[in-house]
Design brief:
Putative methionine and alanine importer, small subunit; mainly alpha; 34 residues
């Protein structure tokens, strides 16, 4: 793979996993009330 493709893949992975971690941390601080 080219360098550009590797960089774009790393950015996409960081966005996905970063969003997942942010959502988990937000839910732990403010759990949804049923």
């Amino acid at each position: 793979m080219s360098t550009g493709a590797i960089v774009m893949m790393a950015v996409a992975i960081l966005i996905v996993w970063g969003g997942l971690v942010a959502a988990i941390l937000r839910l732990r601080k403010h759990p949804e009330s049923e």
